[in-house]
Amino acid sequence: MARFGIEEEFLLLDEDALVPLAMAAGTRERFTRLRTGGSVTAEYLTSQLETATEPVHDRADAEAQLRHLRAIVGWHAQEQYAIAAATGNPFATTRSSVISPSPHYDDVARRLGHLSRDHEVNGLHVHVEIADDEERVRALNRIRGWLPVLLALTGNSPFADGLDTAFSSWRSVLIHRLPSSWSPPRFHDLEDYRGRIRQLLDLDAIGETSSLSWAVRLSERFPTVEVRVFDAQLEPEDSVFAALLCRALLLSDDRSLHGDRLDGIDASLWTAARSGMDARIIDPTTGEAADAWVVVDRMLAAGTPALQEFGDEEFVSEHLARLRVDGTGAARQRRALETDGTRGLAALLRAGTPAPITGRDRTPTP
Fold this sequence. Notes:
The chain is an alpha+beta fold. 44% of the residues lie in helices and 16% in strands. The protein is built from 12 helices and 13 strands. The chain has helices spanning 27-32, 59-79, 103-112, 133-144, 147-154, 170-175, 190-202, 236-251, 262-275, 292-310, 313-326, 329-351; strands at 4-14, 39-42, 48-52, 82-85, 123-129, 159-160, 163-164, 181-182, 213-214, 216-218, 224-231, 280-283, 288-291. The strands form 4 sheets. Strands 1, 2, 3, 4, 5, 10 and 11 form a 7-stranded antiparallel beta sheet that branches. A two-stranded antiparallel ribbon has the order 6-7. A two-stranded parallel sheet has the order 8-9. Helix 8 (236-251) crosses helix 10. The longest helix has 23 residues, at 329-351.
């Protein structure tokens, strides 16, 4: 069974104002001493944390690791009277973000300039293991056309500056300002992929390959395809759902895709970021515009053989049924704010990373 891994990013938010907070002194050192399934590390901003599972084979293991890692970041946030928010973008911001100290992040900040002031974005990244180099490129090409519907299903950043942006994924809009973002082009082979990256480096558009912001790319550290189109997700089940879809689509041998022109994919990513599951996007099986839910059905048809092989079909179907009723993360955030203001939104965000204890002076259970 093909292994996969899940990386989740979180923003520490003030539990009342819902603006980003920097990590307390010594937090980085504490995380480096953690011995647990997966890892917790600091991210680009001092208000950000990232968790990464160990490679997993199945849904149960993935969900168990995610819940454990979320409990750790929830405990850390609780200590600081904050929320570790699994959202693509903060509700509001002071635009006073501090860059985490490292040579790599210093270089990124120099390149981004003023963009860093509100580049407070959290994503979900899914790695799927594929041993053969050239097959990884073919798998990347296969999933490109499905990127818009994957984003539509997982938009979870409707607010910015304390206002409703009218977008399902404001994070995607912020990411699009970067020089290598949204969909990559179709690649002929691995050498073509490497050549395109060399050109970006020669342009000085990026400082190193790890700065690529494409919505899907090949990992430089692992024999994996890394899908990065998703906003951070409210609940562990949302992240696992996205990961299982990625694995099925990347390992599918479907050859029926016809609509994978870069302009169509990027335009569809915009409409998906704007309207979520109410969007019209390009159906990659026909090359024509269709409602997002219609494209979901086509995507399931392409991925069902792999979903069945791995025993994931029932979970994915049930999660889609829940999305039809409860809506995406963006819809749930809007509903929480409308129902009970920022207090309701805070409660929704806090529920995604519940601390394992009630006191503020104990360490988390290993």
